[in-house]
Task: structure prediction
Amino acid sequence: MKGNLKLQVQDLLGPLRSMVALVNGKAIIPSLNNVLLEKKEGNKYLYLTTSDGETWLKMKVPIIIEGEEDIECSPFSCCIDAHKMRTSFDTLADMNIMANITFDDVKNTMTCNYGCGYFILPLLPSTDYPQVQTNIDKDSDKYKMFTTSIVALQSNISHTSYAVANDSLRPQLNGVHFDATKDGTLASVASDGHLLSKFVGEAKMYGEEGQSPTCGDGGFTIPTRPIGILSTLLSFASKEGGDGEEDGKDDKITITYDDRTIIISTRLFMMTTRVMEHRFPDVERVIPQDNNYEVEVERETFINALKRVSPLGNASSQLVVMKTNNMESSMLIMAEDLEYSTSAKETLPLSYIDREGESLEIGVAGNLLQMILRKMQGEYVTMKMKGESSPIIITPKDDMSHLVILMPMMIGKE
Result:
């Protein structure tokens, strides 16, 4: 194998950075510390594959092949140390240049010539690189498939992934759960036991050509680490759009899964990972139905007040106390650190308050509340409460598509 390829460095860097993030450098199988590079017959792409043993990621980079009838255009495959490859190409990040890359199986080297210089990396055999599962048995009664938009999936992950758990004692919470319906909704939910975020967005659903999408029946759960990688990939794909084929742009994403494996694919990448084994809890059962103390507050005003008050509270507990005043339609937020003798208070006007209830005092983690408010949409947010020890329901005003449950904290125990 001897290949001579020409590519745009910037076209390679985006995929390479996303893919190397999957390589942890501590793989049980040594070959998984590498990037698998493949050039296929009659194809003008260089394919890159990485894996951590549970999740597999494959992306393609457009190339220009030097010579129309040259043997240098022949298919080949090889491996290169993932982190060395990224580090080397990262040095060219500020140079908008084309690079000539030569693969030599006699010297077992890859040479990248970028005009004013070059670097050489050793090649490793691709024969030891494990094979990735690229399809799911369509005849299985567990087979499900649907296609939606990248924007829809990206929105669901953005609104819920911040609440995902990382708890070995409760593995059923270590992921984001998705449930798609044929009527055009994609729901996702994540929780760490103290914070729960549920989002239901509109999403056009497509099936295979001439068929309806197959989805529902409990949905699927993607584990925490693959969700982080997928979020990065979706951001990259939404910026890149299409790859220039056909209509030049395609924001569709196809999800195929059964009870063990999920395959997520776009024109730019294909990601294969395991479906989380543990059944995700039924979140509808934990959403309080009797929180009848309701207040509405302007979202940006609330965020800015928390930014001023929270830093002067206890750094370890992040406790912020909210105290409503029915008579004045206001809410006092306060934080205090007794050890360093610091404190802060600020009064917020409320656009609405349930005057039939009594004034309420409740403690929350200020950093979590700020994060929740930043993820919300709309000018105003609604908080439904019951008592100082009951969960708080937070939603955008008159919009239940994004619902967050935040557990309160004990007051006066610092």
Q: What stands out?
A: The chain is about 15% helix and 35% strand. Helices lie at 9-20, 82-90, 150-160, 224-240, 299-309, 366-375. Residues 145 and 256 are 4 Å apart (CA to CA). The first strand starts at residue 2 and ends at 8.
